[in-house]
Structure formats: C-alpha cells, structure tokens
C-alpha cells in the first residue's frame, strides 16, 4: 500500500508541474490542457487521501 501511495503522490506532483507549465505557455489550447492536468492532479490527490485514510 505504501508503494501505491508513493506512486500516487509522484503522479500528483508530476501533473501539477506539467499543468502549471502548460498554463504558462499562454495559448488557449495550452491553458485548457494545463487545466485538465491540474484537475487530474486534484482527483489523484483525493484518491490518495482516501486510500491513506483507509489504511489508518
């Protein structure tokens, strides 16, 4: 379970960084892609939080 939570944390951070980089590019398509990546990061973070709470 620890490995899964670590993987989810890494995926969340990667999605946050990539999403922010996409938004920084400025075009409408890049901003839309960045917003999607940020939404994915939030959802993966929520899943990780639920899994972590379930293991306690």
UniProtKB/TrEMBL annotation:
Transmembrane segments: 29-53
Keywords on record: Membrane, Transmembrane, Transmembrane helix
Name by which UniProt lists this protein: Uncharacterized protein
